[in-house]
Design brief:
The structure is a single chain. Strands 2-3-1-4-5 form a five-stranded parallel β-sheet, with helices on both faces. It is globular, with a radius of gyration of 17 Å. The protein has one domain (27-189): Rossmann fold (3-Layer(aba) Sandwich). The chain has helices spanning 10-17, 34-47, 57-61, 72-91, 105-113, 129-135, 140-145, 176-189, and strands at residues 22-27, 52-56, 95-99, 120-126, 167-170. With 196 residues, it is an alpha/beta fold. It is 42% helix and 14% strand.
């Protein structure tokens, strides 16, 4: 059967939802606070009657991307799949909060290209490597330093920080409440959610 145009437009979904569909892409090192901020924002948006969903790197690695390793090519494919999924959610009118290390700038640019202009917001969770290593709740940095994990971002594999993110969050010393305030302000300024 031939592909047909969507019968419900993005504008119609925005009117029904009372907000626009969008992708908030949180990027940063492991332990930078991406998942914590993403879950807190999802809770706040829920309280505001906004339709949102969190896509988390760990979550996708156990399901949709369970067949992928951690080579550069596999990391790029992981983010390609995540970007495609996020774009579908955003097209359905949801605010998708993505929490992925996503170490390569070109992979993040490809994810951005999947959604209309203004509907992709790159959020850099800026946290020094030393602080991320102190947090290390999963013991990953210790294992990487001990040579048990090859190609670990920040240790034996590079992380390309965003050159011009839509927002930088200081997740080393800033509070979750401060991060939420900055994110909500950005969502209002970009007219994704209403001022009220």
């Amino acid at each position: 059967m031939p592909t047909t145009a969507a019968s419900i437009t993005r504008a119609e979904r925005a009117i029904q939802n009372r907000h626009r569909g969008a992708v908030l892409w949180l990027t940063g090192l492991s332990g930078a606070g991406k998942s914590t901020v993403a879950q807190a924002l999802a809770r706040r948006l829920f309280e505001m009657d906004c339709r949102s969903y969190v896509l988390d790197g760990d979550q996708l690695r156990t399901g949709l991307c369970s067949d992928l390793g951690f080579s550069d090519a596999a990391r790029s494919e992981n983010i390609r799949r995540a970007g495609e999924l996020a774009a579908l959610f955003a097209d359905a009118g949801m605010i998708v909060i993505c929490a992925f290390i996503s170490p390569f700038a070109d992979s993040r640019a490809r994810a951005r290209a999947l959604v209309p202009d203004g509907a992709f917001l790159e959020i850099f969770c800026q946290c020094p490597l030393a602080v991320c290593e102190e947090r290390d709740v999963k013991g990953l940095y210790r294992r990487a330093r001990d040579g048990q994990l090859a190609q670990f971002t920040g240790i034996s594999s590079p992380y390309e920080a965003p050159a011009a993110p839509d927002l930088v969050l200081d997740t080393a010393s800033g509070s979750v409440d401060a991060a939420l305030a900055s994110l909500l302000l950005l969502l209002r300024e970009r007219r994704i959610v209403h001022q009220s």
